[in-house]
Specification:
The chain is α/β, with parallel strands linked by helices. It folds into two domains: about 160 residues, Alpha-Beta Complex (Spore Coat Polysaccharide Biosynthesis Protein SpsA, Chain A); about 45 residues, no CATH class. The chain has four helices and seven strands, in the order ββαβαβαβαββ. The strands form two sheets. It has a five-stranded mixed sheet with strand order 1-4-3-2-5, with no helix packed on it. A two-stranded antiparallel sheet has the order 6-7. The protein is globular, with a radius of gyration of 18 Å. InterPro entries: Nucleotide-diphossugar_trans. This is Glycosyltransferase 2-like domain-containing protein.
Length: about 210
């Protein structure tokens, strides 16, 4: 089934104004914790378009997601500039890493690739802020990241990475790839930050 909007309150008169907040959702058990954290974030809602992307083929998940959205948009809450819920109807994939014998179209990475191809086409503002549903951000995360982006015209994007993905005891992991050297389609060199890295680090991601 082709993807479609389930909720869409965006107006043509101001759809390019402000900032877009993109939420990518697919994990049932994390929804309540994720949205509870989102409520506590200091966000310029009145200047922010909310775009929620359901990357599943599960009608029950969609129902739970709508419940969380209703709670987030309660009448007493500050309202977003617009709200959109896009349902992808993409079938879930079993593998995230893939293998030499697996077609790309059958991998979970293919789902993510298709998701971002679509999201790219439905973000209309110059700036967007994206959260994944397995991340609970500090309340001031948006303000800190947005300030870094706006303070330097040479900065194209700002990202914050969780350095641990385990329950207690906390085990740090590599802090993402920050420098890649390619020769045609071949990876020559890849470097990552140490798990002990702190503060703001400038990288060349081009």
């Amino acid at each position: 089934m082709k993807g479609k909007y389930i909720i869409n309150t965006m107006s043509k008169k101001d759809y390019k104004e402000g900032i877009t907040l993109v939420l990518t959702c697919s994990k049932m058990t994390l929804l309540p914790f994720f949205f509870e954290g989102l409520k506590k974030m200091d966000l310029p809602r009145e200047n922010m378009h909310l775009l929620i992307y359901d990357n599943t083929n599960d009608p029950y998940f969609l129902g739970k997601l709508r419940d969380e959205i209703d709670d987030l948009l309660c009448p007493k809450c500050k309202q977003f500039k617009s709200v959109r819920l896009y349902k992808s109807y993409v079938r879930p994939r079993a593998s995230i890493t893939g293998s030499g014998n697996e077609k790309f179209s059958a991998s979970k990475i293919s789902n993510i690739w298709r998701m971002w191809k679509k999201i790219h086409d439905i973000i209309y503002t110059d700036t967007f802020f994206q959260l994944e549903d397995d991340t609970i951000c500090p309340p001031d995360a948006f303000k800190r990241l947005y300030k870094l982006l706006m303070d330097d015209s040479k900065v194209g994007f700002v990202t914050a990475i969780e350095t641990g993905r385990n329950a207690l005891p906390y085990i740090p992991v590599r802090v993402g790839v920050h420098k890649i050297i390619m020769k045609k389609d071949r990876l020559i060199k890849r470097e990552s930050f140490s798990p002990n890295t702190t503060g703001i680090q400038k990288i060349d991601s081009a």
